[in-house]
Prior knowledge:
Elements: E1 2-9, H1 16-27, E2 39-45, H2 53-65, E3 71-77
Antiparallel strand pairs: 1-2, 1-3
Amino acid sequence: MKFRVYVSFKEGVLDPEAEAIKKTLDTCGFTEIRKLSRGKFFDIDIKDKCKNKEDIVKKISDEVLSNPIIENFKIEKL
Length: 78
């Protein structure tokens, strides 16, 4: 079974890369953008014989893929 884990900064955490991209977009004339954020995602394929697939992906997401102090994650089944 496949899962996709989206990781992004929590609200209020400074994202200098997104801010730089937004400034570039403003300079290019795309002034309609109020806010821009970036994130990352990971695709995880769990072996079919494995039990508790969702629990495993949640644990991986919480303990390895994200920093719970400054990031949120969302899991989606594919």
